[in-house]
Structures are given as structure tokens and as C-alpha cells.
Amino acid sequence: MPHVLCLGGGYVAINLARVLRSRLRAGRVRLTVVSNENFQCFHGLVPEMLTGTLQPTDMLSPARRLFAPGDFINAEVQSIDLDGRRVTVARQLDGRTLELTYDHLVLSLGMTEHLGRFPGLAEHALRLKSYAACFAARNQFVEMLELADMEPDPVERRRLLTFVVVGGSFAGCEVAGELSEFLPLVARAHFPNIEIREIRIVLVAATPKLLPELGSREPWTSQYVESAFARDPLIEVRLHTKLASASSEEAILSDGTRIPTRTVVSCAGMSAVPVIAGLEVPRDAQQRIITDQFARVDGRTNVWAGGDCAAVPLAGGGTAPGLAIWAMTVGQLIGRNIGRTLDQARLAPYRFTGLGDACAVGHRRAIAKLNGVPIRLTGTAAWLVWRAFMLLYLPLWEKKCRVLYSWLMTAIVGRDFLNLRADAPMNVTRVFFDAGQDIVREGDVGTSLFLIQEGEVEVIKRGEGGTETQVATLGPGQQFGEVAVFQRVRRTATVRATTSARLVQIRREAATLIAGASDALHASLSRRLHSAPETETPPPRS
């Protein structure tokens, strides 16, 4: 029986399985889908989940329901051998591998965040590619309101209530629009110490206009969104501007502007996943796999590609955009063409031209244009059309019902604003600081020690009249803050980055656990504690 192996469990895989379902039931073909998640996340509804309109699992569909009666394997793809027609996958529990063979291979692993795009992205920006990252972002928004409500320092309040969204794409615009509705709505009702005018949302776009996915078509769409944001007192749009770097306390833009913030959301910049990047196949300038008009990888008769990782040519020129509806239709095309190949029939070219464009901008407003319909919808009417399309393309009926129920309940009782943040199993994280930024400050209660990976820092003590004196410099391989961690004292010195610096931050719980597990490390730390200068003092007892 011919075996179709699909790598990736997104929109391409869902529609591939739908087209092949009758053949699967008849026993004429076998389908196996491999994904590192056992669910599919409907990204069109991410902005509504982020801001409490939908429950966190409303937009998730179980993979085994989506791909039945095909097989599903929940594993990571390790390697692909196109000549040998073999794929190696590894289970996430312990890395144990399994080798799969195929007759037809479908590549739909999408793209991953380009973490090296600017310093600090990997360490400090919230990313919305995976569901786990989306869930973390939802909790972050609520946590910032909670912290700001009790914060007396006006500088820190501004930092907590400033939200920087990077990327002028559909995702970036919809997130900014939803935040401009959600934050003041919840703050006004439940956070009495927050004034609405304190909330600030900065949308940063490197392009000259918003919604660059549209290209030159329908310029009025981006104009409407820009106009809507210009009238919103909470949103500030920065076009022709990139994010230069990010830290835990500020975002630095390409024009030199420094924005104090605790929240940077990245909706821009993708690169090929490593296993796809390692394949010897033709690629375009965006590192997408080049296919022919039938969605076959150039030079391969049994390898197909679709979704974000593929450049599928359009009949009118250009390639299919990285949007859900295009991935869905390419998945359908691949399913039909695999069936035609098995039947030894002529392949069908990709002829889809799109359904139209729609973008929600918060406050029950959107803009929509359907292909073939000479009417442009804006405002509430467009918002209803947008919601109808989201509901239509949800892959399972039970999820359509859950989303409808959540929309109804939100309209009646309001949005959820629970912070469901789970404690990290090990409090060890990477952090980034740009030159001139403080890593720890004099007077802070020390809860972490730091290991320097890259860059240089200086230790500064403040004297009378606020004068600062450098007492030491530290570089790669050195550490600071161990006295604070193990003796629970306040810092009496500031440590400031003199160059761009990457560090490993180890919180007290993890440091204590590590030190207790190694006699040699414990002895080394003890020697350092006894020889360290008195740069930290105990906090006053209450």
C-alpha cells in the first residue's frame, strides 16, 4: 500500500488528510502525520485568546481526531534522507529514535522564529509562533496589570504599562488592536490604581506601511488600519523602524529611541527550521523550498511542500503568501495530486487566487474585502464577516461550538483575566543587556546570581551626592551575585553592562539545588563567599 508521510501537523496536513480520507477508508493509501505537538493551533484566533475573549484551549484541535483514519506520531523530526526515502524522528521523552519510510513525502513544517534577528530577542521577547509562547504572552499581559496596580514608582509603572509589538503584519496589527481594547477595559473595571492614560502600545514596523503581506494590492486596507490606529489614543505606530535590541527593561529601536518596557511581543521575522534548512533542495531568497505549479519540490517527483516553508508559484505570478487560507488550499492540491499520481492521471496546477482580505483592529472593528464582491466592508460589519470566516475554517465542529459559546459568554459576563503562569521547573534563563543598561542595582534584594557568557560589565558603587565609582570589571567566564543568593542580602553595588552582554541568570532555588548536588561546587562557592568583598548588606527586617 502506498505510504504518504506528512511532516508537520498544521493547515497543510489537515487538508491533505481530508482529501485522502476516502482513499484511507478504502485501504488504497496509508497516511502518517508527524508533529511535535498532539494538537493543531488555529492561529487566526490567537489575538482573541491573548486578550481573554476565548479560553486557552478553544483554538486547539486534537491531532488524532484531525488525521483519522490516518496514523499520527507525536515526535520531533531529526533528519530527512530524500534519496533513501527515510525520515528519522525522536520521541520527546528521552530522544529515542524511530525510522520511517515513505512513498510520498509532504514537507509542511512551517518556519521558526529568527532568534538572531536582533540582540535580546531569544531572551526577552514574547513570540507567538507556538501555543506555549502564546499562552505565556496571555499571562504576561495580565501580570503587568497586576504589578502596575501596586507599583508606587511612576517610572516603573510606565515600564510595566508599555507594550511594544514588533511587526506590522496581520498578526502584529491584530494583537495591537486587541490590546488597545482589552487593557483599558479590564483596567477600568478591576484595577482601580491604574489610569487608562498610563497604558501605551507601540507598534513597530520596518516597512513603509502596515500589512506588507498585501503587497501592492488593496492599499486601502492598510490605509484603513493605519487610520484606525492613528485615532486610538493608546496606540503609537512607528513605520520605517526596526527593533535594534531588547532587554528585560527596555526596547531600543533602530532610530536610537529607547522605550522603557517589560513586554516586547515579536510578530515578525521567520527562518527555516533546521531540519528543512539542511535539505539539498532549491530555495528562494526567504529560504523557502521552491516547488513547481503542482506543489512538487523541484527535481523530485515524490516530494511535495506547502505552507510557510514552501514557495508555491501562483498562476498570475509570485508565490503563495504565508497565510492560513493559502496553506489550506495547497494542502488540498497536494492531496489531489498524490491521488492523481497513484491513479497515473495528469496533475492539477495551483489555481487559487484568494478569498479576499480581512483584518480585525479591536473595539469590534475590522476591514474586509471579498474577491469578486465589489463592496468593501469596514467597522462592525467587517468584524462580523471576519468572525464568520474564523468560525468557518475551524477544523472541528466541537471547536466551532466552543468558540461560539466563549464569544457569547464574553459578551454577557466579560473577559477572563486570569494569570495562569506556571512555575518553571528550573529557574535558569538566558538574559541580554545592551551597553549602559543596569543588570542589578544598588539597594535591590538579591535573588539571582549571574554567569557572564559574552561581553563585559562593570561594578559601580554610589557615593555621596550620587557620584559613581567603578570598583571592578568582569568578563566572560566570571560571575557575580553569589553572596546575595546564599546569604540573602541587599546589593550595595550596581552592575552595569559596558558592552552588549549575554548572561545566564540562576535564581536562588536553582543555585541552591546545584550547589547542594556537588561537593566541589559547594566548596568553591564557600571559598568565594568568605573571600568576597562586603558589597552586599542584609535587608532590614520588618
Notable traits:
single chain, 542 residues, alpha/beta, FAD/NAD(P)-binding domain, Jelly Rolls, 3 domains, five-stranded parallel sheet, 32% helix, disordered C terminus
List the helices and strands and how they pair.
Blueprint: E1 3-7, H1 11-25, E2 30-35, E3 39-41, H2 46-50, E4 60-62, H3 63-67, E5 71-74, E6 76-81, E7 86-90, E8 97-101, E9 104-107, E10 111-113, H4 121-124, E11 125-127, H5 131-150, H6 154-160, E12 162-166, H7 170-190, E13 200-204, H8 219-230, E14 235-238, E15 243-246, E16 250-253, E17 258-260, E18 263-266, E19 270-272, H9 274-277, E20 289-290, E21 303-305, E22 310-311, H10 324-342, E23 356-362, E24 365-370, E25 376-378, H11 379-393, H12 397-413, E26 428-433, E27 438-440, E28 448-454, E29 457-462, E30 468-474, E31 479-480, H13 482-487, E32 490-491, E33 494-497, E34 501-507, H14 508-517, H15 519-531, E35 536-537
Parallel strand pairs: 1-2, 1-9, 2-5, 9-21, 11-18, 12-13, 12-18, 13-14, 20-22
Antiparallel strand pairs: 3-4, 6-7, 7-8, 10-19, 15-16, 16-17, 23-24, 24-25, 26-34, 27-33, 28-31, 28-34, 29-30, 29-33, 32-35
Helix pairs in contact: 1-10, 5-6, 14-15
Description:
The protein has 15 helices and 35 strands. The chain is 32% helix and 27% strand. It has 542 residues and is of the alpha/beta class. Mean pLDDT is 90; it is low at 533-542. It starts with a strand and ends in a 5-residue tail after the last strand.
State the secondary-structure class.
Answer: alpha/beta
Q: For the record, what CATH class of the largest domain applies?
A: Alpha Beta
Helices, by number, come to 15
Number of strands: 35
Low-confidence stretches: 533-542
